[in-house]
Design goal:
By secondary structure, the chain is an alpha/beta fold. It has ten helices and seven strands.
């Protein structure tokens, strides 16, 4: 596992241009140059994500909120099974955005030759209406206010498999939104403090106990 925070430590005037200009073979450099709160020093969520996918062996992984693609790419590179990244890529919903990053994400996906990743440009609720595959691993990282987070969880949790695991980003950085909703959940769970917080909700207390034993220094 490689911790590469080059996006943070060596900021570029135009990271999109820089990333797309890197050689296709430089996978770690490409990943490290993509801005992501998932990959924030001093400790990213990468080690845990790789461990979780190896342990859970999800047949279907879904991410709600693709952003610039870092976590989508990482979770797809960790496995051969299908990963779906869903995002409206609507700049009116993201105050800090000035660009529609859909084309950037598709370009990086092609650059990294990630064949098991499907990017769906749509709103979460729209996609959920016709979703027909049991989901083993769900990453919720859309709008971080309480109501949207609650809606995303309640809508998609019904689509989870019996061994399903939900990971929810920004449980620490959004204490009144994601954090509050996560704290209210009455399910086996654990909360990591690094990289803005990552809450883990599982249907299995045994898995949560295993995570606690493996990553006790992170909570």
């Amino acid at each position: 596992m490689i911790e590469n925070f080059s996006w943070f430590e060596n900021k570029k005037d135009n990271f999109r241009e820089y990333v797309l200009g890197l050689p296709d073979s430089e996978v770690e450099e490409i990943l490290g140059a993509i801005p992501s709160a998932w990959n924030y020093p001093p400790k990213s969520h990468r080690e845990f994500a790789e461990w979780l996918i190896k342990t859970l062996k999800p047949k279907v992984t879904v991410e709600l909120g693709v952003d610039y693609g870092y976590s989508s790419f990482l979770m797809a590179l960790c496995q051969n099974n299908p990963v779906y990244g869903i995002d409206c890529f609507d700049i009116s919903k993201h105050g800090i955005r000035i660009d529609d990053d859909y084309q950037f994400v598709l370009a990086v996906k092609e650059k990294l030759k990630i064949d098991n990743l499907t990017i769906i440009k749509d709103y979460f609720d729209n996609v959920a209406k016709s979703w027909d595959q049991p989901i083993d691993l769900l990453h919720i990282d859309g709008l971080h206010d309480y109501d949207n987070c609650k809606n995303d969880f309640e809508t998609w949790f019904t689509l989870m498999s019996k061994k399903g695991v939900v990971i929810m980003h920004d449980t620490i950085s959004a204490p009144d939104g994601v954090g509050r909703f996560f704290n209210e959940l009455d399910h086996p769970k654990i909360n990591f403090k690094n990289s803005f917080g990552l809450g883990v909700v599982a249907k299995s207390q045994t898995l949560i106990d295993k995570i606690q034993n493996q990553f006790h220094d992170w909570v």
